[in-house]
TrEMBL record:
The entry's keywords: Cytoplasm, Exonuclease, Hydrolase, Magnesium, Metal-binding, Nuclease
Gene Ontology molecular-function annotations: exonuclease activity; metal ion binding
Keyword Cytoplasm: yes
InterPro entries: Metal_Hydrolase, TatD-like, TatD-type_Hydrolase
Taxonomic classification: Bacteria, Pseudomonadati, Pseudomonadota, Gammaproteobacteria, Pseudomonadales
Organism annotation: Pseudomonas trivialis
Keyword Transmembrane: no
Binding site for a divalent metal cation 1: E97, D209
Full protein name: Preprotein translocase subunit TatD
Length: 268
């Protein structure tokens, strides 16, 4: 059984000095390929560097390149040029993480929207899929995406945590959906239990979002409280349970979906 983790923040400082061990545990758990999330221009460069240093085979580690909406204020005249250069690298498979976050508003909303549109224009120009972040901004994200969707190859709303109306609005736009350990959280994620049944095969992918969102159903829990890709099978188990699918079947179709979306090779 092979899994693909479509969103892991391996550049996070909590993983410093632990990269090889984290990857070995992931591979042992069946997570055979990982997409490292780029959340800033510098961070996207670091993610690509990790891919090249930690994967001699060129088959297991890939990355995205983008600027998280929290950091939209960091966008400058040099950002688009640097991202375009990164997005031309063979290991970089998607534009993002980009999008809108109206929950924390760490950057002004008009600036978030401007930077998102810059990312969407790059994705269209380079014919790459988009790795989207959205929190409390469903309506505005839809308004923006509708002007670009016909020209985008594909897009995934990563770490989906919204309600039914948001899910259906994204599916209506032919977007993919990424599910994380949020679904394992009995305090705030139970609304996802019936919703994951509504995501069609070929549109559903799994992600750890490590080191965040440690699955609360995991037993035993790690003493450090840090999530890592090796725990993705727990997300698989929980999603399979609520879709009334076997873990093997879910692993098969979600992995095929991720491989097609990011254009990943088959691991021997």
């Amino acid at each position: 059984m092979q899994l693909i983790d479509i969103g892991v923040n391996l550049t996070n400082p909590s993983f410093d000095g632990k990269h090889q061990a984290v990857l070995e545990r992931a591979y042992a758990a069946g997570v055979q390929q990982l997409v490292l999330t780029g959340t800033s221009v510098d961070g996207s460069e670091q993610a690509l560097d990790l891919c090249e240093k930690l994967d001699d085979s060129g088959q297991r580690l890939f990355s995205t390149a983008g600027l998280h909406p929290h950091s939209a204020n960091d966008w400058n005249g040099d950002s688009a040029q640097r991202l375009r250069g990164l997005l031309g690298q063979p290991r970089v498979r998607a534009v993002g993480e980009c999008g809108l976050d109206f929950n924390r508003d760490f950057s002004p909303r008009p600036q978030q929207e401007k930077v998102l549109e810059e990312h969407l224009a790059l994705a269209i120009e380079l014919k790459l899929p988009v790795f989207l972040h959205e929190r409390d901004a469903n309506a505005r994200l839809l308004e923006i995406l509708k002007d670009y969707r016909d020209h985008l190859t594909a897009a995934v709303v990563h770490c989906f945590t919204g309600e039914q109306a948001a899910l259906f609005s994204y599916l209506d736009l032919d977007l993919h959906i990424g599910i994380t350990g949020w679904i394992c959280d009995e305090r705030r994620g139970t609304h996802l239990h019936p919703l994951v049944r509504e995501i069609p095969r070929g549109r559903l992918m799994l992600e750890s979002d490590a080191p965040y969102l440690l699955p609360r159903t995991l037993r035993p829990k790690p003493k450090n409280g840090r999530n890592e890709p090796a725990y993705l099978p727990e997300v698989l188990r929980e999603v399979a349970l609520h879709r009334n699918e076997s873990a093997e079947d879910l692993a098969r179709h979600s992995t095929a979906c991720a491989r097609a979306f990011f254009g990943l090779p088959v691991v021997a």
